[in-house]
Every structure is written in structure tokens, then in C-alpha cells.
Amino acid sequence: xxxxxxxxxxxxxxxxxxxxxxxxxxxxxxxxxxxxxxxxxxxxxxxxxxxxxxxxxxxxxxxxxxxxxxxxxxxxxxxxxxxxxxxxxxxxxxxxxxxxxxxxxxxxxxxxxxxxxxxxxxxxxxxxxxxxxxxxxxxxxxxxxxxxxxxxxxxxxxxxxxxxxxxxxxxxxxxxxxxxxxxxxxxxxxxxxxxxxxx
Length: 199
Fold this sequence. Notes:
Rossmann fold, two-stranded antiparallel sheet, five-stranded parallel sheet, alpha/beta, 6 helices
């Protein structure tokens, strides 16, 4: 299992998609699981961090699904709707060689319980991330610009300092440029898969 983590709007989903495609070209099938799909359904936001906290993630469901996925028993993919805050499921083809788990909140839960084979941390400037998050949340999550900015200042930045930044110290790969990071991650994962196949 490979974890791709980092602060909000650092490019985790895009990087994970590019990595999955590169792995497929190398003959390695990846199953992508997004931690954003494990937000608690109809959860009351934390008074200090809102949704920018590990507590917002349904840890039991995430762990259960990862366990079922490793055993080849997971048949449905959990999905979380950011607008309605409701959960639904879609069919999942669980035939894969490697799991790519991406998210800001969720990887923290795994480090002690189910340590990943590789932890990748994406780094991006706050200015770039702020613009990305404004564009994304107003278009895709039905939010106003004012509410996004307010959440960023009051909850996102404090939540990142508390829960996400420490992951950088644990990371095997720190990505500051997508092209270089993608190459390094690809080489590391291919080596891991080759090693497991020979044992």
C-alpha cells in the first residue's frame, strides 16, 4: 500500500492519477482509494478544526475497507458527496497489484496501525493551494468564496499545522516538483512490487 498525502489542494488527486497511469504503463495495476470518501456521514464539524481534522474521518470504515481490499473481498467503493455530506457506493474491480491511498486526513490513522510500504508527501506553496481550493470548492462543492476563505483561515491552516505537516517528517518521498516526484515514486513502487513478487 502506497500513501500519497499532503496539505489541502497540494495536487494529491492529480499526482495519484498520473502515478496510477504510469504504473499501468509499467504493467502494474493500481487501485486508488481516496480518504475524502471516508468523511463521516452527516458529521457535526469540530468546533476548532471543522472538517480539517483526523476525527472527521470514519477510521473504522477506512480500516475495514482496506483490510477487505487486501483480502480481495471489497466489492464496492465508498463515495462521499461533499455537498450533501452523504455516503453512497459504486462497484469496485479489486483486481490490482498495489493500493494508492490518497488524502490529507486518513494517512495519519495508518502509520501505527497499518504502516504503508511507501509514504509520499506533496508540498506546494500556500498561495497556489489557496487559489486551487477557491476554484475547486466554489465549482465542485457548492460553496461561496467568502465561506472558503473563512474556513481556510480559521480551520484549514490550523488543521494542517496540527495533523498534516508532521507527516512530512515520516515521508519516504517529498514531492516539490511533480515530474521529478513522479519518477522517484514510480521507481520506488516498481522496486517494491518486484521485491514482493520474488518472495
